From TrEMBL:
EC identifiers of the protein: 1.3.1.98
Organism expressing this protein natively: Denitrificimonas caeni
Protein name: UDP-N-acetylenolpyruvoylglucosamine reductase
CC terms in the record's Gene Ontology section: cytosol
Keywords: Cell cycle, Cell division, Cell shape, Cell wall biogenesis/degradation, Cytoplasm, FAD, Flavoprotein, NADP, Oxidoreductase, Peptidoglycan synthesis
Length: 340
């Protein structure tokens, strides 16, 4: 098995925050056999491994003394179809948004609210990607993984993946399981989720009274493009903080002091707060320290104007976290994976 292992590779093109650190070793793998060979090679060299998809959820803080394995397994196949559902297997290296568009073109629904999320299918289960009231877990049947601890290929059911808000088994036991492919169970008859964010308002504005999944996808793309910076033009990693969840008593107290605070009641009685609102109200929107900055239009997004390091971006994030803790008594957790 021949592997093209490169040395001292700049990671700048491989992370959406465009942080310029070097990987000591770098290899692209397009099959399970190549992945296994790369893992054996890393073990023989005594270096650890970083799994890489599209690099849109990473903060790289130092040169990486590891083997970066860029997962490039490709392919989409229909496994079965009946009157209600189609089951589809998608390889880890497929681009997420391209797959969403493919599913819509097949007349399938369920993923329209997750349109335009950057990255690859293989990383989507890691943080259970979510947007506009839909999460990956709502349409995922199972995941095929290579378990590095047992050296076995294993299928994990939706339940076994232990999905939660921006969280999963894969995030909690980071690096142990390499996701090879994901099986989705997608409905043929759309049941649209429109009750989140600006979606319903946007469709009304466009005078679309009976939207199709395509309409919802287009609406999500336009709303996202207006709100979020395109990483190709302004480097960023999407939402930098998770929306914090607090007790109802804490939320009530905050509502007394801040009547316009944005809250979402949770099924378990707790309350999710909009992190972007807290950061915006605290005056951080547009704050720039060197090339690290809070986006001028969206307080939840930290951006790199050119030469910011991962450390500088994290230093800005720490100041925001300390300020939000002091003002509101709320702990903000960083969403992207910090590596270095
Ligand atoms: C502009 C922008 C908007 C965004 N909007 C959203 C949003 O609305 N909702 C949302 O949930 N996220 C959002 N994100 C975050 C990001 O798009 C997702 O987390 C996405 O799933 C990351 O995919 P990736 O391939 O780029 O992962 P990477 O950044 O390459 O990797 C992320 C993590 O997964 C691990 N990993 C990667 N591939 C595999 C694999 N095959 N097996 C096991 N582990 C793996 C990596 O080691 C790393 O820990 C946004 C990001 C950006 C830049």
């Amino acid at each position: 098995m021949s592997l093209n292992i490169q040395e001292q590779v700049s990671m700048r093109p491989y992370n959406s925050l465009a942080v310029d650190v070097r990987a000591r070793f770098f290899v692209s793998v397009a099959s399970l056999e190549q992945l296994q060979a790369a893992l054996v090679w890393a073990q023989q060299q005594g270096v650890s491994v970083l799994l890489l998809g599209g690099g849109s959820n990473l903060v790289l803080t130092a040169d990486l003394q590891v083997l970066v394995i860029h997962l490039q397994l490709r392919g989409i196949s229909i496994l079965s179809t009946d009157a209600e559902f189609t089951r589809v297997a998608v390889q880890a290296g497929e681009n997420w948004h391209a797959f969403v568009l493919w599913s819509l073109a097949q007349g399938l629904s369920g993923l329209e609210n997750l349109s335009l999320i950057p990255g690859n299918v293989g990383a989507a289960p890691v943080q259970n990607i979510g947007a506009y009231g839909v999460e990956l877990k709502d349409h995922l049947e199972s995941v095929l993984v290579f378990d590095r601890e047992t050296a076995l290929v294993q299928r994990l059911s939706n339940e076994q993946c232990q999905f939660a808000y921006r969280d999963s088994l894969f995030k909690r036991e980071s690096g142990r399981r390499v996701i090879l492919s994901v099986i989705f169970k997608l409905p043929k008859h759309a049941s649209l989720q429109l009750d989140y964010g600006d979606l319903r308002g946007y469709l009304a504005e466009q005078q679309i009274s009976a939207p199709t999944p395509h309409d919802v996808s287009r609406a999500v793309c336009e709303i996202r493009a207006a709100k979020l910076p395109d990483p190709k033009r302004l480097a960023n990693a999407g939402s930098f903080f998770k929306n914090p969840v607090v007790t109802s008593a804490h939320a009530e107290q905050l509502q007394k002091n801040y009547p316009h605070i944005v809250c979402f009641a949770q099924a378990d009685g707790q309350v999710k707060l909009a992190a972007g609102w807290l950061i915006d109200q605290a005056g951080w929107k547009g704050v720039r320290q060197g090339d690290a900055a809070v986006h001028a239009k969206q307080a939840l997004v930290l951006v790199n104007h050119g030469a910011a390091t991962g450390q500088q971006i994290l230093a800005l994030a720490s100041q925001i976290q300390a300020d939000i803790q002091q003002r509101y008594g709320v702990e903000l957790e960083i969403e992207p994976n910090v590596i270095g």
